[in-house]
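User: what does the whole thing look like in 3D?
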Amino acid sequence: MKQRIYDTRRQDVVDFEPRIAGEVGMYVCGPTVQSAPHIGHLRSALVYDQIRRWFAATGHRVTLIRNVTDIDDKILDNARIAQEAGGSEPWWGLAYRIERDFTSAYDAIGILPPAYEPRATANIAEMIAIVELLIARGHAYQAEDGSASVYFDTGSWPAYGELTRQRREQMEDAADSEPVGKRDPRDFALWKAYREHEPESASWPSPWGRGRPGWHIECSAMATRYLGEEFDIHGGGLDLRFPHHENELAQSTAAGHGFARHWLHNGLVNTGGQKMSKSLGNSLFAHDLLEAARPIVLRYFLGSAHYRSVLEFSESSLSEAAAAFERIEGFLERAAAQGVPLADPAVSGPTIEDLPVEFVAAMLDDFAVPQALAVLHTAVRAGNAELDRSGGSPEAQRLAAQVAGMLAVLGLDPRDAVWGSDAASAGGGDDALDALVTALIEERRAARAAKDFATSDAIRDRLLAAGIALEDGPNETRWSLA
Amino acid sequence: MKQRIYDTRRQDVVDFEPRIAGEVGMYVCGPTVQSAPHIGHLRSALVYDQIRRWFAATGHRVTLIRNVTDIDDKILDNARIAQEAGGSEPWWGLAYRIERDFTSAYDAIGILPPAYEPRATANIAEMIAIVELLIARGHAYQAEDGSASVYFDTGSWPAYGELTRQRREQMEDAADSEPVGKRDPRDFALWKAYREHEPESASWPSPWGRGRPGWHIECSAMATRYLGEEFDIHGGGLDLRFPHHENELAQSTAAGHGFARHWLHNGLVNTGGQKMSKSLGNSLFAHDLLEAARPIVLRYFLGSAHYRSVLEFSESSLSEAAAAFERIEGFLERAAAQGVPLADPAVSGPTIEDLPVEFVAAMLDDFAVPQALAVLHTAVRAGNAELDRSGGSPEAQRLAAQVAGMLAVLGLDPRDAVWGSDAASAGGGDDALDALVTALIEERRAARAAKDFATSDAIRDRLLAAGIALEDGPNETRWSLA
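Assistant: Here's the predicted 3D structure for the full assembly of 964 residues, as structure tokens:
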């Protein structure tokens, strides 16, 4: 069976054949590092992380490049606003600080690092080279007001609009911040002339004068620098289709590059359908989400809708994800407790032969992770039934190995060291403490019921000495670390 | 009292006056990302982190720039060797992966992130600009063999040798990998001509032809790009004094830049004096050290010698550091248990007024951290005595506040969130579990001594049910999580 993928440009599900057998080159649009990462950033990163892991599981060498846009109107604006309020952080310091926030958030939900994470500001020469090529080929021109700006000549490129199936006549004007000197309002900036109110450090020399790159040319330059002039997959959020990806495609192909063979777009996150809690806020920053949910549960949740669908966020959908994930986790714990041997996910990568055929079929069908998760839950149910019936039988072992293999493919094995003490708490010291304290609370309850207050007080004192406080409620006794 | 610092160029302790009152610009030579971080890298980062924190505590706005050298002979060699062994990682992927290792190691021991971490490959244009300036000023020349290489003309710069007090006549030849076309063997490369056996992606266009920068010019360009043509402090390991820092100084001043006002050098780590354990290995990689010691203890250890002295590493010196740090930690725990209020280090930064004058004097005297730690331990001893004598008295509160303040300045407060569950285990769930299990083991021992085997077995079963296994030895019973 072939890998099938939905290609935005073809508006169809097509066979995927890597350009070079056994190798996949992927470029994913990373963040503009202007403010803290939110749920949409996490989802996009997660989508391409699971796709990349699937390609690896099916025997491909994957080179994933995810850029950082570290020069941009909004970065300069945010830095200026903070400086006017008394701050001293330069725009590049802000960009770096936010880049670190993104790295932490990605790491927290188990996103594998890309092969490289180029910064736009580190690729200025490569961008200038493409702009020069476009001018030489008659697809770009220096601004007609004499400034250093350079625009892509949309009228010169008949294919313009092919990605989003728009006719140029019906397109909106390009939203450049200072659209002066253009021949046509739909033309977009490749190079933006330096403006006096901006920091000089945010401009670079070029054949046309000081300035900085347009957003779109950044990705064209970074993708081809690290993946070559033609590569397999370009991914990004659905909101980037137009104008960003349309313009990338136009300028790169107009420059003579094959560029991306396939365009993938992930759906957005809908957070508007439900009232959010105060603790989460409506902005749903990664930082808040990671306080509200275990990172592995957040990862599970982010993968719970098909990558092309809208992901509906609500507190209840997050809770449902937690409950669903805990069913999987509970099965692994039960299996381990009954002596079922489970491969260490760090040692043996999963091989496609060990996975249920329905799981493989789902993933081959445009990375249908929700269907794949359904197969996983079916195996968990069957595995639990088998444990009930006959303990650690060969069939239980087979099912547990399948579950572990599917989890590994999806980056969701709670035993993976990446989850640290969060997921390792399943079976670790926290569980032991909870079990022990719960048993002692029960013993104390029995002693009190028998009016043996000496024993019940002794238990309370022993717990207190260990730093554990009890609080008797009407129906139950709760405990907490003092 | 003034801040005093040892300036390598002046070979003397001098008054430190920032170039702009209240602001400190520091450039620190970061790693060449060719292989995993080791103890020497951690020590260097720690030294400048504590200096930077001290400047911040004394009211300065610090801009610390620490670079990443991500293009270098050794990076290219290591990538090529791995490719010849069947790997597919390009040199830039290797550099990025190792850069991430360094970031993790720095984060683990609480090194604050720099204001910016420039990569050499992102500053090629700035390097070329300095080389052009040097040629124009008569201090550099294109290789006489007609290649694209450019060399600094050491004979043209009378001050050459000033940093390390060497006369040019007595200097060694520069150790460039392909020293062809030089006028003098002591001249060093500013730009290295592209060589056919290297990947083309590791070369950039320049006015002299394709090539890559020399190591020294990288730091000259990155320091001035982010800190300006003149800045306060340049730091790095003692092994970098010559030729790296000598050459940086020569080329930057020859280009007309004021460059660093002061040069600081940290001493190296001696790991040869002692036989190392197998688990650590003789290479002392950060990864192994972080397995062998709690990160906060490793940080304490790395700061336990004066920054200009050799730090002697041995297992026993690491154990001594652990014991010393635990005395501090124990005092904080005792104080908290006795109700002494301690400021949250995350909320209130320490102010110099709250610190013992001896501590302040030590830090003002060329950042004498070992003396500062001695003051800290004196306060801990006095604090413990006060707790013994009168519990949480005002004097105990004053001493505890001083201890917390000194720890905050040094980045060593175990309650700081940066240490996560590692240091938080002081007083957390792990301690409660240990206390509880130890009490139950003692109860079981007493029951067995009284031949009450029903009780002793019941205790063992209750522990087992909570996932805790006991192992009876000749003198004691150990426990572990099953």
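In plain terms: DSSP finds 15 helices and 14 strands in chain B. The two ends of chain B are 58 Å apart (CA to CA).
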